[in-house]
């Protein structure tokens, strides 16, 4: 499912839900609805999420591509997106 792949890549990048919400001009609760799959993602929002996570939005539709992207992120060991939070930063409960 698309929202699961978005969340997997978000977590691999070390990006918080709070950061995603801010970049998408949503409340944290609004982003949580996206993350849980209770809100459908339209093409425009997927494009923005792709920009935030530095990944082609088509990746979110393919579990194998998502896995390859995550492996690439893990092998690099750093965030190659500009302005992304530090992956090792402690997060508050619920930011996950």
TrEMBL record:
Task: Return the protein name.
Answer: XRE family transcriptional regulator
Biased composition of type Polar residues is found at: 77-86
In this chain, the stretch annotated as Disordered covers 77-96
- What Gene Ontology molecular-function terms does this entry list? DNA binding
| Residue stretches of biased makeup (Basic residues) | 87-96
Q: Which InterPro entries would you find in this protein's record?
A: Cro/C1-type_HTH, Lambda_DNA-bd_dom_sf
Q: Which residues form the HTH cro/C1-type domain?
A: 6-60
Q: Which domain of life is it from?
A: Bacteria
Species of origin = Bacillus canaveralius
